[in-house]
Amino acid sequence: MSPPSLSPSSSSVVLAALVVVALATLFFSAPASASAAGAGAPRPRPFKKIYAFGDSFTDTGNTGSTSGPSGFAHVSNPPYGVTFFHRPTNRYSDGRLVIDFVAQSLSLPFLPPYRNFSSPSSSAAGHGVNFAVAGSTAISHEFFVKNKMKLDITPQSIQTQLLWFNKYLESHEGCKGAAASGGACRDALKDALVWVGEIGVNDYAYTLGSKVSGDTIRQLAINSVANFLESLLKRGVKYMVVQGLPVSGCLPLAMYLSPENDRDDIGCVKSVNTQTSAHNAALLAKISGLRKRFPGSVIVYADYWNAYRSVMKAPAKYGFKEPFKACCGAGGPYHFTPFETCGTQFSNTCPRPSQYINWDGVHLTEAMYKVIANMFLNGKYSQPPFSYMVGKKQRAG
User: Fold this and answer.
1) Contact residues for 1 (Cβ-Cβ < 8 A; gap 6+)
2) CA distance readout (Å), 324 to 25, 56, 62, 363
3) In Å, how far are 9, 32, 337 from 209, measured between CA atoms?
4) For the chain, which residues make up each domain, given as ranges?
5) DSSP E strand boundaries for 291-352
6) What does each of the 397 residues of the chain score in pLDDT, given as a tens digit?
7) Which residues does the annotation mark as catalytic?
8) Domain 11-249+269-313+377-396, CATH among 1.10.10, 3.40.1130, 2.70.98, 3.40.50
9) Cα–Cα distances in Å, from 248 out to 35, 135, 241, 274, 374?
10) DSSP 3-state of 193
11) From CA 327, how far away is CA 356, in angstroms rounded?
12) What is the DSSP string of 42-89?
């Protein structure tokens, strides 16, 4: 597809460009084994499995299947995966993602992507499944088609992921019927952690060139996510983590596209960060309501926005020397241009990715994902603390 015309004063344009590059990220399928996860000596497992949902920040291979978006094969090239896997994988980074560090912390293997199972009875799914898809939206694909939003080239929404999850429960866990919510399903989910990664940035991006407002997108997206979470809770999910949106205005692509007078107090794109902050506030309000309606479940909010922002305010504290430039890319003040992206013959890679926050202009380095994961799991950026959830699960048995 040809690149859209850009209006640097519009946050929706910046987010739209984020999507165009984010969707340019297809990888070879490479689900990791327990040994590859480096779990070390066996430890007690509070959870027996993880089910993950979200977009490219959580996707471990669902866009790498034969039915995923096509035309972005350059992102299957080195140096993707260079830091940990030493080859390209289905992860949108030089190595592991937040969800990988979550699995490791729980002594579980990395999650296989749902669409790359070798067979319905694949043993790889024994410890969980990843349903996240790069470019995925909170609002259904049909809404964007109806409103002629042509940037929406990933048809799978969070509701699609819910359908996959229901199908998986029926085929692997004995939960019969699409709306089953008792008995077998509750037994199957009592030892599971459900991790809902960020979802919603793409929805705002697809408004480029349309008459649909950001306020409308926020209302529809938040309602869709809330309905999704409610469906999981009705199914019997007892332990859930929901990530908010990150400070997308700190990504090199956003910085590259925006005017210099559109900056906040940490030097990132103010208009974009304001939009994602408002989204997170609405999401947290919905989560608060669900907590009251489902008091038997623990719903943790992972504050991606403030965790990421804290790193940007003091990068050296977390071991980073370069907060704005992409490690892998080419050109411009941020080592990034949309037409010389990581994985193409025009790009080059920094010698030490661990010193960079950003990997390819849109996605983060393994080092940054590790920091963020630690802030969620062991720091103050989960509400209530992740340790509270683990403790409650251990007491419940």
Assistant:
1) 20, 71, 150, 153
2) 20, 20, 28, 12
3) 14, 41, 22
4) 11-249+269-313+377-396
5) 298-302, 322-326, 328-329, 348-349
6) 333 334 444 565 555 555 444 444 333 333 333 334 444 445 568 999 999 999 999 999 887 644 444 444 565 789 999 999 998 887 889 999 999 999 999 999 999 999 876 544 455 568 999 999 988 999 999 999 888 887 767 889 999 999 999 999 998 888 876 455 556 788 889 999 999 999 998 888 788 778 889 899 999 999 999 999 999 999 999 999 999 999 999 999 889 989 999 999 999 999 999 999 999 999 999 999 999 999 999 999 999 999 999 999 999 999 999 999 999 999 989 999 988 889 888 999 999 999 999 999 999 999 999 999 999 999 999 999 999 999 999 999 8
7) 56, 360, 363
8) 3.40.50
9) 34, 14, 20, 10, 20
10) strand
11) 6
12) ----S-SEEEEE-STTT-SSGGGSTTS--S-GGGGSTTTTTTTTSS--
Q: 297 phi and psi, to 5 degrees?
A: -110, 150
Query: Rounded to whole angstroms, how far apart are CA atoms 258 and 82?
Result: 30
Phi, psi of 26 (to 5 degrees): -100, 140
Q: What is the DSSP letter of 267?
A: S
For the record, the structure tokens of 55 come out as 């977009």
* Residue in 72, 77, 93, 87 with CA at minimum distance from that of residue 25: 72
Q: Which helix (H) or strand (E) holds 160?
A: helix 158-172
> 125 to each of 212, 258, 299, how far by Cα in Å?
40, 42, 24
The H or E element spanning position 243 is: strand 239-243
Give burial (CB, 10 Å; 0-12/13-18/19+) of 268: buried
pLDDT at 69: 45
Task: Count Cβ atoms below 10 Å from residue 119 Cβ, excluding itself.
Answer: 8
Using alpha carbons, select from 184, 140, 187 the residue that is nearest to residue 159. Answer: 140
Residue 14 in contact with residue 76, Cβ under 8 Å?
no
Amino acid, res. 329: G
Structure tokens at 44: 């007690």
